[in-house]
Amino acid sequence: MSFCQVNTIRMHYRVVGNGTPLLLIMGLSADLTWWERLVPELEGQFQVVTFDNRGAGLTGKSDERYSIPMFAEDAVGLLNALNIPRAHVFGVSMGGMIAQELVLRNPDRVDRLALGCTHSGGPGFIAPSVEAIQNLTLTRGKSLEEFARQIVSILFSPHFQKADPEYVKTMIQRYVSNPPSGKAFTNQFWAVLGHNCYDRLPAIDTPTLILTGDADVLIPPENSRVLNERIRGSRTVTIPTAGHAFFIEAPRETARYLISHFSGAG
Length: 266
Prior knowledge:
Layout: E1 2-6, E2 9-16, E3 20-25, H1 39-42, E4 46-51, H2 68-81, E5 87-92, H3 94-105, E6 110-116, H4 130-137, H5 144-155, H6 158-163, H7 165-177, H8 182-193, E7 208-213, H9 222-230, E8 235-239, H10 246-249, H11 251-262
Parallel strand pairs: 3-4, 3-5, 5-6, 6-7, 7-8
Antiparallel strand pairs: 1-2, 2-4
Helix pairs in contact: 2-3, 5-7
């Protein structure tokens, strides 16, 4: 395990592979292990950097209120600590919000950008169903395993839950054995609620790929259309039958699109 000091926190990170640096930014409360199916598809092409956001995994859980700009500064701080002047960036869900803020604040640090299962915030945000929000947030009277099953029900598509029940079971067991800190989860959740890059997105000049699964119930695919309309020259790819965690459900397909985009081929 590798750690470094980034701003006010001790950050957990991992670097594998060789080539152009690629920074992967994970979503709400998830740690770098969530990249375990995608990284092997990318490390032959890139120097892949993964990390735990502030408040997640083994990274420090500071007490102050979090924000997406704070997370973006943490990501840049990690690049600084690793002496990486520029990198491709791929962020999913909350990580996609962080990636938007990162490129808007530090466009010189991003070669090419990819955004997955995320949204612009502000007037462009298309909300999930009430049921999806409740499954993400309602814990009262629930055991850890029951809540983990709620989370799984909105992260993975019905197709994937049926096709790979063993992996779904593994993810539930991981959550139960190492649940996120309640306070840190709440701090990250408030950061997500405060995200709004909608008005600034037209300022993004970086070549951008937008990815979504057509069965995403947590951040509906229509949010990708909004991002595509706001970011000039961007391209959108929709992965069929995949849910919110499409990068887990379809890692090879996801990697194929990312490699093509980051190489400048598409």
